[in-house]
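Hi all, posting the design record for the shared folder.

TITLE: backbone redesign
STEP: 1 of 1
STRUCTURE INPUT:
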């Protein structure tokens, strides 16, 4: 079945022409893309990719943007060599594909990356951001990993962890108002549960008119009315990291 009737929302405006300014390294059993600022720093951010995997130019562009803001940025292959989703794949097979890529089962990889950042990069304050599948992974890590300082979940798929809201660390949730993947009712319910159970700082922000994937879209393809919100989302993400790292 062709996908023309259901174009993938993460796929809009991919920076296929973007090469990246970092390098690929081996971190124990996984590969990772790493970018370091020119000045030394003890602050690092783990970037968790969406369903299109660690090599997606969009995601590497965001990692590089973090580096220009003074952070060591690392985007590991959290699919551990398994194939990333392709826009040409049949959506009918998506749920089966997803079963072998659980956003709540990345702890072994995160531990390896944390060790690498501490031992090889001198990082002491480490945060995490993630997009879509990776946004759900951020929520998972904010619920359980004591070694991370803060997280930003960008349009993280709420249904993966919608019953858990007692966060350990300050967490910023970014959502688009017109996201077909994450209905606003789910966002409202998340806010209610956070209000009831969360004892650390958090923020849930909905960006008007925005669809899934809006923060890591190709800049040249931005609609004029979307551009301010895309820039605002990126700035909010950086400001949150700056506040807690």
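Okay, here is what came back for every position:
SEQUENCE:
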């Amino acid at each position: 079945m062709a996908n023309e009737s259901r174009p993938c929302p993460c796929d809009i405006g991919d920076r296929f022409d973007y090469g990246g300014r970092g390098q690929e390294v081996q971190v124990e059993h996984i590969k990772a893309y790493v970018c370091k600022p020119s000045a030394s720093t003890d602050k690092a951010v783990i970037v968790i990719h969406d369903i299109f995997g660690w090599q997606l130019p969009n995601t590497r562009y965001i990692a590089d943007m973090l580096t220009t803001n003074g952070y060591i940025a690392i985007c590991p292959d959290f699919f551990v060599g398994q194939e990333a989703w392709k826009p040409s794949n049949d959506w009918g097979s998506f749920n089966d594909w997803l079963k072998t890529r659980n956003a709540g089962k990345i702890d072994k990889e995160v531990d390896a990356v944390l060790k690498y950042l501490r031992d090889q990069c001198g990082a002491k304050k480490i945060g995490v951001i993630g997009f879509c599948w990776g946004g759900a992974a951020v929520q998972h890590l904010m619920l359980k990993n004591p070694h991370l300082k803060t997280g930003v979940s960008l349009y993280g798929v709420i249904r993966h962890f919608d019953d858990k809201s007692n966060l350990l660390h300050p967490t910023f949730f970014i959502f688009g108002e017109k996201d077909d993947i994450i209905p606003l009712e789910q966002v409202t319910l998340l806010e209610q549960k956070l209000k009831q159970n969360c004892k650390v700082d958090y923020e849930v922000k909905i960006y008007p008119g925005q669809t899934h994937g809006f923060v890591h879209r190709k800049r040249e393809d931005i609609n004029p009315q979307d551009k301010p919100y895309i820039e605002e989302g990126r700035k909010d993400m950086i400001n949150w990291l700056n506040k807690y790292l």
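COMMENT: DSSP finds six helices and eight strands in the chain.
Let me know if anyone wants the other runs.
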